[in-house]
Amino acid sequence: MYAALLVAMAMLAVPFWGLAKEPLPKGPPSSGRVAFGVLPVIQALPLFAAADKGFFKDEGLGVELITFNSALEKDVAFTSGQIAGYFGDLQTCIVLIGNGAPMKIVAEVYNATKSRRTFALLISPKYAGKGLKEAAEAGVAVSSNTILDYLTMRFFASKGIPLSQTRTVEMKNIPIRMQMLLGGQVPAAVLPEPLATLAESKGARVLADDAGTGWSSTVLAFNEAFLAGSADRVKAFLRAVDRASASISSKPEDVRPLMNRECRIPDELRKSFSVPEFPRLTLPLAAHVDDVYRWLSQKGVVRRDLTYSQMVADGYLP
Question: pTM value?
Fold first, then answer.
């Protein structure tokens, strides 16, 4: 039922990047490969590196990374059984689990560090001098029920700004959101990296970001049936990704061409945007998972009672 709902949504939606890079194979994944859905974003770099450097092959895995250009496409592919697992933000995973998708989170691959942001709330150059309170009242462009929406709420709460005094503007298309921010059509917007850095270079000003907050968990998740029947392959998959994370952190410039290509770094930033340092894989913190779950429940997006163990599976990390 939920898969049918997602397919219907996909038919009505206009993805902000277009269609998937390559057509999906018909039918469910064969027993000889691991089909894994990814997005062309910075936080997914260890997955691209594990494939590029042959770490999956070293583990005896036939991994097929399938790049989707919108989270909705990826969700449809997962719920229709065309991929065994996927990379995504914590919010999206909990929405799927809460609506009956048979999946569990097995690892956190990235979260904002003390010195490194992954998302930022910026004020338009045409609203120079305005602060976060003024931006909240004027309108912040976000995408509802996503990590961007969650972070916006967190940014306001951290500064004591009541949600009753805030206004958000629904705008799912991220490149258009940036263009409207720079043009002053929206007073403020939340953007992911590297677009936040690009917007800042063009005159937008950062009012808040997620550096060091622990609010921006991106995770790896698998179908429950795949976890039950292929535990060794899941563990091998995570070993390869963990090895890639360590490789990136030790020699970041070696993966710059890969990052520029797979993570779609804007031309203006291809030489200057620094490669992130990736930590060892871990499980997302229970407190953060519970906070996101409560937020989605209060919004009515998730209506099932869920515990941490129903959303996160332990025992697969290296």
Answer: 0.87
